[in-house]
Design a protein that fits this description.
The protein is mainly alpha-helical. α3 runs antiparallel to α4 and α3 crosses α5. The longest helix has 38 residues. It is globular.
């Protein structure tokens, strides 16, 4: 008796639905941030809530995809796109509103877009999986953005703003270091692929 081949994972599954929800939440997040010019009222708190829900779906869809074997080609493409849309829009909005220096937004976005493109360039030589440093970078970026989104100065005072600034600077440092690490890995992967 032979085992029947494993059935393909359906694209319409809970992990991919959560990823799609995260993408759909981005326009709502943008609207809540801009509708009241970023002021510390109800709409700002709604923006914080939407961001928090979207970030939670990122963790949840990844956990579900791995634990239930729901990894699909759609998920592999849509998940990082959803992440970049959410993080990128948050950084740009904070800079537009004058709450985050533009140089920080530019450094992070150049790194994120650059490494994503680099992965596509070297994919024929092999896959560059996310490193521990890369995962730490994501956590720090998310935490820093969340702190910036909270109306900290109004509610908690200047010390909270200082904490947010410190976390963001650490996130930027880890972003740059891990970006350089990925470039080195990509060059080694390409060299090894060409040598075969």
């Amino acid at each position: 008796m032979t085992d029947s081949p494993a059935s393909p994972v359906p694209t319409l599954n809970i992990a991919n639905v959560l990823t799609t929800i995260r993408i759909v939440l981005v326009p709502f997040f943008i609207w809540f941030m801009l509708a009241d010019n970023g002021n510390d009222g109800l709409l700002r708190w709604l923006a914080v809530l939407v961001f928090a829900v979207a970030i939670y779906t990122d963790k949840l869809d990844g956990d579900l995809a791995r634990s239930r074997g729901l990894i699909t080609n759609f998920g592999k493409i849509a998940d990082p796109i959803a992440d970049k849309l959410l993080i990128g829009s948050a950084l740009i909005l904070l800079s537009v509103l004058g709450e985050l220096p533009w140089w920080i937004t530019v450094v992070i976005l150049v790194r994120e877009i650059g490494i994503t493109l680099l992965r596509f360039v070297v994919i024929r030589y092999g896959v560059m999986p996310a490193s521990r440093g890369g995962k730490l970078k994501t956590v720090l970026q998310t935490l820093a953005i969340f702190l910036y989104l909270l109306p900290l100065g109004t509610w908690l005072g200047d010390w909270a703003v200082v904490v947010a600034n410190i976390v963001m600077l650490v996130a930027v440092a880890v972003t740059v270091v891990t970006g350089a690490d990925y470039v080195i890995k990509a060059l080694r992967l390409r060299a090894a692929g060409r040598g075969n």
